[in-house]
Amino acid sequence: MITIKKSYVLCLCIALIGILASCGSRKHTTDTKAARAADAMAKLRSKPLYRFINNWTGVRYKLGGLDKSGIDCSGFAFLLQKDIYGKTLPRRSKDQADAVKSKNYNSLKEGDLIFFSFGGREVDHVGVYLNGDFFVHASTTRGVIIDDLTLPVYQKAIVKTGTLN
């Protein structure tokens, strides 16, 4: 009986040590992509922009969509520019790129537009710059999301950055 109790206590102690050790070895880093995206949102100067992005985050992608049931990248940029900055953009991303004044990537400011070409030479995607190398866009696979511009997939595809005249 005593041997069984000692074995039980020993097993319990080993399990407890294992649990405590695993908790202590977990890295507590704030440098995750999600934490950096949240930081970019927290640093937005425009509170209406912050609210706009929060209201649209997670809305699914829908080609030609222009409401909460689904939206595409150019529709998202179109509505954001209209609702937040009172500026009118064309509806298609290629036409939007033609309507902006080019700006150096390193000079981007909150609300500036970033144009991409994933399928060749022509602009086929648009996003809105936030800060700290983050932007918001309507991703075809993830819907409206805040993303990291330093990712190679985006760096390779940027064809124009600018501000609406």
UniProtKB/TrEMBL annotation:
Domain NlpC/P60: 43-165
Swiss-Prot/TrEMBL GO biological process terms: proteolysis
Example of a GO MF term: cysteine-type peptidase activity
UniProt family annotation: Belongs to the peptidase C40 family.
PROSITE patterns, per database record: NLPC_P60 (PS51935), PROKAR_LIPOPROTEIN (PS51257)
Gene3D superfamilies assigned to the protein according to its UniProt record, in alphabetical order: endopeptidase domain like (from Nostoc punctiforme)
Name of the protein in question: Hydrolase
Cited InterPro entries: Murein_DD/LD_carboxypeptidase, NLP_P60_dom, Papain-like_cys_pep_sf
Keywords carried by this UniProt record: Hydrolase, Protease, Signal, Thiol protease
Secretion signal span: 1-21
TM helices/strands, residue ranges: none
PANTHER family per record: ENDOPEPTIDASE NLPC-RELATED (PTHR47360:SF1), MUREIN DD-ENDOPEPTIDASE MEPS/MUREIN LD-CARBOXYPEPTIDASE (PTHR47360)
